[in-house]
Amino acid sequence: MSQGRDTEFGLEAVTVVFEDRDDYAEPLTASEVAEQLGCSRRTALNKLHELQEETDLTSKKVGGRSRVWWIPVEV
Predict the structure, then answer these.
(1) For residue 25, which of 54, 64, 67, 58 has the smallest C-alpha distance?
(2) How many angstroms separate the CA atoms of 25 and 18, rounded?
(3) Are 17 and 36 in contact (CB under 8 A)?
(4) Residue 60: which H helix or E strand, with range?
(5) Is 21 helix (H, G, I), strand (E, B) or coil?
(6) In this structure, which of 4, 26, 28, 44 has its CB flanked by the most CB atoms within 10 Å?
(7) Domain spanning 11-70: which CATH class is it, in words?
(8) Each residue's pLDDT tens digit, 12-61
């Protein structure tokens, strides 16, 4: 791996970011996920999009270019 490149993360690592929080229902931004994983925002965003296609991860646009992500909590 060349210097400065992001580490490869599996989708499970991204899911763990959502599951290992005090408030499981709180949405996260791609930047928050990136911070937890220690990767770039772009890498986190790519993984979030991939996870959304393959699981029940949901997102919502909350501003001009802002989006939040969460795993729905069944009631």
Answers:
(1) 58
(2) 9
(3) yes
(4) strand 58-61
(5) coil
(6) 44
(7) mainly alpha
(8) 899 999 989 888 888 999 999 999 999 999 999 999 999 999 999 999 99
